[in-house]
Write a structure and sequence with these properties.
globular, two-stranded antiparallel ribbon, alpha+beta
Amino acid sequence: MPGIVFVVQEVESGQFLCPYSGDVGFTHRLKEAGTFDTREDAYETACEHCDEAFDVVAVFNERG
């Protein structure tokens, strides 16, 4: 079902959090970014994996 999801982007590098080998990695491509159902989940994950400032961004997901 289409709707709003959240992604995390590091400010300095411009990279997005993404799933990587059962863990969390980084990608330059929005299409490969990991998505979160809630802003809170995105924020908590970013706090654990980002070494610098980050943005949590709402994105409309047409594919659902």
